[in-house]
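Possible race condition, two jobs.
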Amino acid sequence: MKIVKGTGGFVKEGYSISLSKLTILWPGSKLKNKTKTYTGKGRIMSIATVNGIKLNYKVEGHGEPLVMIMGFSANRSGWRSQIPFFRRHFKIVTYDNRGVGKSDKPEGPYSTRMMADDAVKLMDHLEIERAHIVGASMGGMIAQELAINYPERVLKLVLACTFAVKDDTSGDTSEQAGLLNLSPRKMAVAMAKLAVNKPLYKFVIGTLAMIQSYFTGASARAGLNGQIEACNNHNTLDRLPLIKAPTLVIVGTKDRIIKPVSSEVIARNIPGATLIKIEEGSHMFFLESRALFNQKVLDFLNPESPTK
């Protein structure tokens, strides 16, 4: 069995195991100039120059705008379990944060405020005045900064498996804290294994993260370092009461990366926020418990939408 590195992943018997797309290797051809990218139903990835960098993004579906912001080290394909569901109800925007994927990976420092500015500038580029904002993990930190600093741009806000500050109560679990001295590449692999609780998911996610880590270049390492810095310095606790948008805070009770109590802290400090706990849910409960997550978020964003 021949496995070769291709665009966005590894090609095995003609098909990539990339998380974001399918790469077709034509028989008897050389990989470098005989690959085609298929994103499905004519959906094309685009690049926008915003806030001094290039961001890779994709727009799908119709309806009210929904901007989905992914977490540390993950590109837009981290929403693969949400995209098919939510594009039936909204015009969804997913993108690679600065530092990962096909977006630029400048040297730091990064901050979650800077990355919130990236998101708003992308909305400007797409001529989206207001949108629902969903953020997971680091994406939830970015979403907090967006809602605090650009309240007029947010319809409703969803904060998943995230924190407002690192202190004695909130922030990283002890398991996650034990990874902080690892290199960014090793940390990303170890976090992938902590992010899920079911054995099959641990094997698949861990294996893919390990494979991808072998091909992490200097620019990608700079991007991961920048994102780590942004997470470590994130602190919105005293400013959470400034959030005016209706807010759903949702968390898995068995999150091994961010203390689940962090979500309780957030919900207590945002006026009128709703808190939902997914029993036995992991950090990536939006993957492992995707049907439940998707329905809870849809019910909050648009209670009148059909469930399927």
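Job #2 (started ~2 s after job #1):
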Amino acid sequence: MRALEDQRRQQSQHVVAGGGDQDACAVPGLAHGGGRAFDLDAAHQPTPAQLDHTRVGGGEIVQRFLSKYRIRHTGGLDRPSAKAAREELGVEGVVLTTLETYKPGPPPRVALTMRLVSAGEEPSIEWIDGFARSGDDAPGLLALGVIQDLKVLEREAFTRVASSLAAFLERKGERAPPCARGRRYRPAVAFRASSLRPDQEYTVAVVPFVNRTARRGAGELVSLAFVRQLASTPNLHPVEPGVVREVLLSHRIIMEGGISLEATRVLLGALDADLVLAGELLDYDDSGIPKVNFAATMLDRGSGEVVWQSISHNQGDDGVFFFDLGQVSTAQRLTCRMVANAVAGMTGRASARVSDIPHGR
């Protein structure tokens, strides 16, 4: 299935662009990952013209749909909602955006993750990408490259992810562009069982990390970072987080101290997944130099045994000695790089690779 779609209207209204045999998708709006809310009516989001082969639907139509089915959580797509979206709205997919950081600064900071989820009986992630940047990431000569205006950074964020989605829809871009990696972001401790084979296909259910920090929603942000990196790995297929949330709620599974073996069996059985990934977030500080500390564990469906485990703790100035060169300025970018290295170790591809991915990843 060639899923499709992207962002919404130009100002306060959503629009439907194109027609005929074009694919269609809906954009329900932004989910706030514990970050600061902002005025959607003033958002400089990309227009449907950026996606020539897709009809983008939103506005009153989508709002009526959300109200009819009493959908308040727009950070994921469960199976009943995905089926209803396909049948009632006639869309092929739904774009979900999680706003992770939106701070005026100085310097301003914006971070978000966007994904395209197929509509139908079994929603699946068709494409996922993210953006995270601070206004002073690339100051340049005499600080001429510093961005002071939050709206400028916001426009760059939505334009960047819209371009990524457009490239994917045109079969010119990746399904899940990976984050940059590097030796300094490798896990402090890592274990991988020999039974976890890099040449075998696995379906992975990622549950929200237990959040031990003061940052509201930070555990879900780290789990979403794992979803993104797993999606970029050919043999690992993450379950749509909205479906995982649906099962957790329907079975009343609460993970205050982490996921139990019994809860793992229930999850894997209900989701028909091979592996479940859970974890604990111990530190997530994005107030200055970012600091992130998490532990992650993966359990096997058949044996119930731990097949992979990793502990990572880093801060944005690790390995930085001169003029802040190479410093990571946002917790989201730091998390993404840490998770990219953790997942590389999961698949046996732990050799260091420093990417030339531009600012924002």
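The two ends are 27 Å apart (CA to CA).
Logs attached separately.
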